[in-house]
Structure to design on (272 residues):
């Protein structure tokens, strides 16, 4: 686990440096890079854990991991990052990206209450609901692409192609370190939890969620330390959107995810 933590921290530092360079070279705002490239990269551990859990039928871990990770992103990661450096939030982020993240949580709450709202036999995220979540993710990608086009007003410099290749390789190396390090940390934590006899949902909401959120934590902290608040904030908001719309959507398409009424408490905390 100690080696895993070291990989996560180093990978985050590399990723933030490369993402900042990529934003400058492409003439794209850092908030767009944070919302997309950085957010998706730091969510790779959640994606890997959820896909594996869905295939193996560990649906409690799939649901708990996403809800717990999103709560940790907002309360823990933004909190720690704000202590390091004041995080100035752009007006566009307040008006568009944050409401979209809130919409994702509210949509999850609606989908998680089939029995109450539709008189269904049980509460679950079905494959059709998973496809709906993936459609919302496609809309978010279109919106992000529009932001990137609007922000790219200048021609690339002569050495941009070589610079982009180097930046891309650095980002891949950073993300690889994040994924490998987080996997080692989570594996060790899950084994410990099982020794303690904890439930899948409890493991997903706590140990797995915090473990898979380590890349977001390390990346946003590194961004705050480097005085890049847009990447720190964009990473958290983009990761939360990615987690619900894409990862939870994909997980429920692979295998419908049964839910219990207790999950409403956790979703309520996320919305709050």
């Amino acid at each position: 686990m100690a080696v895993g933590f070291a990989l996560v921290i180093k990978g985050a530092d590399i990723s933030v440096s490369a993402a900042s360079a990529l934003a400058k070279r492409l003439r794209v705002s850092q908030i767009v890079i944070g919302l997309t490239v950085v957010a998706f990269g730091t969510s790779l551990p959640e994606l890997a854990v959820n896909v594996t859990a869905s295939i193996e039928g560990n649906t409690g871990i799939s649901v708990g991991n996403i809800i717990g990770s999103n709560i940790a992103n907002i309360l823990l990661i933004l909190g720690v990052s704000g202590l390091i450096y004041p995080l100035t939030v752009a007006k566009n982020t307040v008006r568009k990206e944050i409401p979209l993240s809130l919409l994702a949580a509210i949509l999850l709450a609606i989908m998680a209450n089939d029995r109450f709202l539709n008189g269904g036999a049980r509460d679950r995220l079905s494959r059709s609901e998973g496809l709906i979540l993936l459609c919302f993710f496609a809309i978010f990608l279109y919106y992000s692409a529009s932001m990137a086009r609007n922000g790219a007003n200048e021609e690339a410099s002569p050495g941009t192609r070589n610079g982009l290749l180097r930046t891309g390789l650095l980002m891949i190396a950073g993300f690889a370190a994040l994924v490998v390090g987080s996997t080692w940390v989570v594996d060790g934590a899950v084994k410990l939890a099982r020794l303690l006899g904890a439930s899948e949902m409890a493991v997903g909401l706590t140990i797995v969620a915090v473990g898979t959120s380590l890349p977001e934590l390390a990346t946003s902290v590194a961004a705050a330390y480097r005085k890049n608040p847009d990447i720190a904030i964009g990473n958290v908001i983009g990761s939360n959107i990615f987690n619900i719309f894409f990862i939870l959507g994909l997980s429920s398409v692979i295998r419908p995810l049964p839910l219990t009424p207790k999950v409403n408490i956790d979703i309520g905390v996320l919305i709050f």
Notes: Residues 85 and 224 are 5 Å apart (CA to CA). The first helix runs from residue 2 to 26.
